[in-house]
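Sorry to interrupt, but I need a hand with the structure work. Go ahead and set the record down below:
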Amino acid sequence: MDISITEFKQHCLEIIRRVEKTGDQVVITRRGKAVARLQPSRGPVAEKGLKPWERLRALGGRLIAAPGESALHDKDFEALR
């Protein structure tokens, strides 16, 4: 969706909420030329159906332990004593 800077200024919060909710990007224009792009920071990752580790992977993170497994080993706990 393209929107002028003037219109963006008038409806800024509404437009940001729409981008956040729908995941669609908005191109902000000045005199018909694109000057900026507003897009969700997480994209489809914000879906509630995804498990936390799936959201982490979608954001580019990596798991160092399986879900339900400790990332620390017994020797690490001993070192903390």
Q: What stands out?
A: The chain is about 40% helix and 15% strand. Residues 45 and 54 are 8 Å apart (CA to CA).
